[in-house]
Amino acid sequence: MAGKGTFTDRRRPGRPCTRRPVQALIMRMARENPTWGHRRIQSELARLGYNVAVSTVWEILHAAGVDPAPRRADLAAVPDRSGPRDHRV
């Protein structure tokens, strides 16, 4: 007796994986642009026509051990203005 032919046992649950060329492009962008974070990489991918979520870019970078760039890398260069101020002119 033949089955119903639905092939439901062959399907995987959830979304399909991100294609390897897209993953490689994400890693290349992160390597060549170390100041870019996952949001900037995602926006550049969108400009190129790749529809990838920001969280997907973050997950790929996180799995590869790449830390996102800090939002302000030059915070140490900002002078400390926490001292007393005299507002009189």
TrEMBL record:
InterPro entries noted in UniProt: Homeodomain-like_sf (IPR009057)
Identification of the protein by name: Helix-turn-helix domain-containing protein
Region (Disordered): 69-89
Domain of life: Bacteria
